[in-house]
Amino acid sequence: MTLQTDLARPVRPLPELLEALRDRGLRRGVDPGPMPSRPSLPTGHAALDEALRSGGWPRGALALLDAPTGSGATSLALGSLAACQAAGGVAAYLDPTGSLDPATAARLGVNLDWLLVIRPADPAEAVEMAAWLARDHSVDALVLDLADGAPVGTRALDRLAGLLLRSGGVALLLAGGAARDAAGVRVALRRRAWLAVGGDLVGQRVQAVVERHRWALAGGHAELDLFFTEGRRMDALLRAAATSVETVVERPALHVVSA
Question: Fewer CB under 10 Å: which end of the chain, C or N?
């Protein structure tokens, strides 16, 4: 297992890394504002915050992003970490497969200097490390990337869910199998269309459906535009042009291509 905040820097002990993150001015336990019920952290997408009916990811939740490969789960998770950092929270990414691309994370708004990256030896150790972070109240939001489909025991996930409830942290799970039953929140993502500028694909339009919510009414849904590269910077410029296939606008402009 290796731990680092910047993927190009030497490995440092976890307690030292956490203390460094706090010393840089980050605040733990941040409430981003008044919420209708349970305190929550923003998802990075106002439409999804509304669909969840809890103002974002509810604190204490193990939330499963249930999506086929390439349907935007990682992009949504990274955007949520960026929103957590923007609200003053501490964020972490547990990456047993080494699949995290720091350049993509940075383009989606994640501040790598303020991101704790942990590379456990295997998925089981990843869940244990997530449980340790939850028990220690060390982070506000973490991504647990088990998307390679490796099996994880139900008992370990149930334990993680219980620790999150007590700590108030949020864990976004990229996985399947037993995680469907352990997660208190489950959001299904399905691609509806590709987004393009001229002849270049730049992202995808995804439907998010809240299939399970322990603290609010499930069934909410939202359409999200998830971009591949310049995501958060392109979004403000191009979202208005992404509303209709028939919209005619000057180039360069965003248009929708059926999935």
Answer: C
